[in-house]
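Let's do one together. I've listed all components of the complex below, 1028 residues spread over two lines.
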Amino acid sequence: MVEAGRSPNIEIITNARLEALEGKPGQFLAKVHQAPRYINEDLCTACGMCTMYCPRPVVDTYNERLDITRAPHIDYAQAIPSSYYIDAKACLRVNYDTCNLCAQTCTAGAIDFSQKPKKLELNVGAVVLAPGFGKVDDEVLEKFGYGKYPDVLTSFEFERLTCASGPTEGHIVRPSDNKPPKKIAFLQCIGSRDETCGNGYCSSVCCMYAIKEASVAKEHEPDLDISIFFMDVRTMGKGFDEARKRAQEKYGINVIRARVPRVDQVDGKLALTWTTPDGEHHSGIFDMVVLSVGLESPEDAEIISKVADIELNHYDFCKTSVDAPLATTRNGVLVAGAFQGPKDIPESVTQASGAAAIASELLSDARNTETITVTFPEENVELEREEPRIGVFVCHCGVNIAGVVDVKAVRDYAGTLPGVVLYEDTLYSCSQDALKSIAEKIKENRLNRVVISACSPRTHEPLFQETLRSIGLNPALVEMANIRDQCAWVHAQEPEAATEKAKDLVRMAVAKARLLEPLDQPTVDVTPSALILGGGAAGMASALSIADQGFKVILVEKSKELGGNLKRLTWTLDGQDAKKVLKDMVKKVKAHKNIEVLTEANLESISGYVGNFTSTISRKGKTEMVNHGVMIIATGGREYKPKGYAYGESPRVLTQLELEEKLSKGKSFLKNARNVVMIQCVGSRGEDMSHCSRLCCTQAVKNALKLKEVKSDLNIFIFYRDMRTYGFYEDLYRKARKQGIHFIRYTPEKRPEVIKQARGIKVKAFDPILGDDLEIPASLVVLSPGIAPGENEELSKVVKAPLTSDGFFLEAHAKLRPVEVAVDGVYLCGLAHGPKSLEESIAQAKAAAAKAAIPLAKGKVAVAPIVSRVNQDACIGCGICESLCPFNAIRLEKVGKRKKAQTITASCKGCGICASHCPTLAISMGGFTDEAIMAQIHAFSPEGCKEE
Amino acid sequence: MAQENVSMKENDMAQTGFEPRILGFFCHWCCYAAADSAGVSRYQYPPNVRVVRVMCTGRIDTRFILEAFKCGADGVFTGG
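Okay, and this is what the predicted structure of the assembly comes out as:
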């Protein structure tokens, strides 16, 4: 968010709504109504004086009505823009022309009651709709005592209670008596999977967020007793099952499979009754009940649909299709996030990037015609040369750091260190307002070195470097002490030791900061092409997007033809002809002038860096070198090969994909069939593969319905662990149940067995409702084996991109960088990232294309200034560095009569092998000089340690 | 046998209350990143290591290690 706020090419118009959208792709005219905020964003310093003096209390809707604020306020400290606004409905000045206190107290003169509603007319080329989701009606919640019993909360309210900057500063208390609860129940599927309120779909996120909220609560209050009442535990996201397991094992959270019909209050406590799958009735008393509320379509979905002239689906979400998940029914109008269907943050972020890719395809001809480039003020070289004046900022990171480390003690300790002239603590150093204030303080105090004691430089250093640049300081003059990721988070149980460690880390950072030197910021040109590995749906979708954005693509496919797993699919999950989707894609790829397809090809090696990669591709016994600026990994996955269940022993045992292939060829094989048994989680969630494959539940239901369509008198049994037909796929599940398909839950201890008989096969399994074993003679057994990773291990070594424990590629950050890998310039999509549907693969492919196109479109990338530098006066030309450099980035050149080493800056990775081996210490590393590292080592000792 | 030695050592440490001060040189790309990941996953480990981030363990000059011992380190950890 901070990044969006800082970009000169993003204009943020808040308090606004779209009133009309005229025109066509490339030439839209958007009419926007903007309500006044009565505070001038540019002048407001977010000091909070107006809130303090305002006499008019209003409920704090950001804090889910659990707190009170005043008419002028800011929703939360990190809000963008970081400016307050006045709630016009409550303000005395706006409504009665009295008061005006805030305007008198505002020292910045930012309060402006003369503001009027504005009508804006914006000329834009493409439109992305991202209105998010709406709230489930209170009426639905009232059935569960919400509004009647104070200790029945929604999950949104509970989330605010667990938040350090929330109304209770992170303490979980019962609203009725402000006392901490001992027993909490979470009720799932409130306003989801519930036709009585019109929401037949699954909201996809509630199972996981309930587990997260429960885990956070347990971390805060280890003695809490928490039960979550599920219908199915739908933790199908990447790594989610692992988190669920951890929550159950580590925190002892009770998972109860039951739908609680109502909540009653007995003696100030909340009484629940429920029935477990074995038919037994239970009851229990809880101190607090949390309703896991689902995601609705946005309140104004219908208005948006009218204004933007787009169609909605039957649940009032935006209508899209599997092969174009980000396109609305109007050309040039795109959609991203929960308005497209309930989804979590990683998926929303992915879709947002995907929508940006499509917009970029549409607008590629107009690229760079309207962009603004930032200019930074000239560097204050004089100030940089002065004696070090160090400022130390110690971050609370909410409770992330301050919950363990005594931040104030660390701050005060920093003040005792030599060279430190300013030491402060900040709540969130990376928030927009904090960055602004840090910048001001640097200027005020004429600081020329800065230490940020917060999180990891790997994630946040660029942000603080830019802050320095924005006020005329060289970005290399900031040093970070990582007291969150490598201190508070990993020593949660030892606050004192963690505080000591934080002090040591700050001392070492300050010691290094004293010796930091300004560094140049070189840039290098980018080879404007992309190498895409994998010619399946994801690879083709990203290839098409990059090519449509105007860049060359080399698409490498290891097999003889394009298509990947899509070749084996017959119908998409929404019933479209998968073969047609495939054919259309292949045709477009082959016809595109910007795409070169290399089949039967493999990546052998890759060298270089973002913007300038060189890869070796082997093809039909030959190898060729390819230069490219970026790379996308779209190497896919494969259907897991089942073990046991008589697979491979009986022709009657198939996988879901094999069934689809058979079905697509005709129905004759079903002629004498009576019973079909499907078994879920054959490979997934088991010993071989611990992950959930996400799709198999929906795929099984889809194929079961197809079987019913072909032969309606079939008896179909589906043995499952949790039916994970998330989102709108729930409709298929309900349809299947209505058509009489039998769903029987099994536990991993009692897996169904497939038994071969003299004639045919039978399935033996335990039915928890009957409480007894079932034996079903089966005409056909269909296994859902799940999705296994492809040959990722080898590729992971070649590219140096890490894998998850499940063998899929690991993204750089699940929420913030979901389609990037840790290596700059390498992106990720499709099954190589993890199991997902075709629709999700395509959205992700577009997202990867959007990210990959950024360096291509910019044409230049900044080289990190951490490269080596040779002091040629000290160099004796021995050549050790040249022989050791793994990147051929240093070579001997004749200078005068003697040979001297010289760094090739663009190739240098800054590893420093040369520097550590130079016998005359002639090589210095940018940001990691011998002196700086030595200073850190000396500062390691609390008493100090001087070089002799 | 090795296992036994380790546990004996651990016992010794527990009895004497010896808390070693360890200086770590972490490679930015792997060990430092892994240490961050450990934090994200909330793995808990003893608070005895102080970290110097380097861009590669190849950067580590023997002098650094000797200097660390001179400055009172009971151990030096290089991760890369």
